Amino acid sequence: MSDRHRIELRWRGRNGRTGRTEIVRAESDESILDAAERADVGLPFGCRTGACATCTGRLLTGKIEHLRPPRGLKNDSKEDGYVLLCIARAKSDCEIEVGSDVQTDLVTNPWK
Ligand code: FES
Q1: Which of 43, 52, 66 maximizes ligand 1 atoms within 8 Å of its Cβ, making it the mutation to test the pocket?
Q2: pTM of the full predicted structure?
Q3: What distance in angstroms lies between residue 47's CA and the mean position of ligand 1's atoms?
Q4: Distance of alpha carbon 95 from its chain centroid, rounded?
Q5: Paired residues of 21 in beta bridges
Q6: Which ranges of the chain would DSSP assign to H, the alpha helix?
Q7: What is the dihedral of CA 103, 104, 105, 107, to 10 degrees?
Q8: DSSP SS3 for 92
Q9: What are the Cα distances from residue 20, in Å, to 52, 64, 69, 74?
Q10: Ligand 1 in contact with 67 (CB < 6 A)?
Q11: 67-111 per-position pLDDT tens digit
C-alpha cells in the first residue's frame, strides 16, 4: 500500500519576495517530478535518470529518498539539502524549493 504525501513546491521570488507556490500530492512510490506532472505542474527536467541535475530542488522540510544514487549531485550539495526530483520519492510531507534558479546555485558561471 502506498502513502500519499503533501508536497509544497516553492519557486524563488524576485527581490526577496515570496514566489509562486503549488501543492501536489505524491504517492510514496512515485517520483516527485512524476507527481508534479500528474498535477499539471511543470518543473525543469532533462535525463530523468539522476545524471544531469536539471531537475534539482532543495529540500526545506521533510524527508525524501533517492531511488538510485543521485549521480548529478556532489556530496556537499546533498549535505546542503539539494535533491534530484526525477529520482526522489517523498517519505513524509515536504517543502521543496524548485525551478531553474535552484539548479544554478550548483553551477559556477564563468561569465559572471
Ligand atoms: S532530470 Fe536529469 S537528473 Fe533529474
Answers
A1: 52
A2: 0.92
A3: 5
A4: 9
A5: 10
A6: 32-38, 75-79, 100-104
A7: 100
A8: coil
A9: 25, 22, 30, 28
A10: no
A11: 999 999 999 999 999 999 999 999 999 999 998 889 888 887 677
